Amino acid sequence: MNSPPSRKELSHERIVATAARAIRRGGFQGVGVADIMKEAGLTHGGFYAHFSSRNALLAEALERAGHDSAARVIQATATRQARGASALRALVEGYLSDRHLGDIETGCPVAALASEMPRQSPEVREAAAQRVRGLVAAVRRALPKDAPADSGPAIASQLVGALQLARALGDNAEGQALLKASRRALLAQYDRESSD
Questions:
Q1: By C-alpha distance, which of 100, 177, 102, 95 is closest to 142?
Q2: Domain contains 36
C-alpha cells in the first residue's frame, strides 16, 4: 500500500510546481527563492529543508516543466491522431498552435528558455540539455519511417524557433500568422499528408 505523501513531500511538490511555472514565465533570472516560496504559500526560511541551492531548485523545476509539457504534448498529439492526423502532423500542429503561443507559463520550457540555457550553472545546463534531447526524441518518434536521419533535430529547431519568433510578435494575429506559415512549411516538407 502506498502511504499518503508527507507534509514535507507536499510542500516540496508545491515549490517545484511553482518554480516550473515561474521559470517559463519570467526566465531563470526572474526566479527568486523568496518569491517562489511566497507564491507556493511557504516561508522563505523553509527553502533549504528542500533544496541545497537555488540551482538545485532550477534544475528540478526545469525537469518538472519538461515532463509536464511532454505530457500535454502527448495528450494533444493522441487526440489529433485519433482524428486521423499523422504523428508528425499532430505534433507540429500542437506545438505550433495558437494555444501554445499564449501559454508560455505551462508550455515547452525549451522554447521559453533556450536563449538563457547556456548561461546557467552546469547543473541547470544539464537539466536543460535533457529537455532539448527529449524534444528531439519526440520529433524523431513522430517522423515517417523514410525521413532522413537528421530531420529530428532540424524539425525540433524549427519548432522552437518558430514559437519564439511568434511570441516575440505577440499572442495576436501577427504571431498566429507566423505559426500558421511555419506549420505549412514543415508539413509540406516532412508530412506526406500535408494540407493546412
A1: 95
A2: no
For residues 89 and 34, give the distance between their C-alpha atoms in angstroms, rounded to a whole number: 42
What 8-state DSSP symbol labels residue 48? G
pLDDT tens-digit map of 129-163: 999 999 999 999 999 888 888 999 999 999 999 99
Q: What is the pTM of this model?
A: 0.89
Quote the number of domains for the chain: 1
Residue 63 lies in a domain: yes
Q: Strands, E, within 61-173: which ranges?
A: none
Q: Note whether 163 and 108 are within 8 A (CB).
A: yes
Cα separation, 77 vs 45, in Å, equals 42
Length of the chain equals: 196
pLDDT band at 116 (very low <50, low <70, confident <90, very high): very high
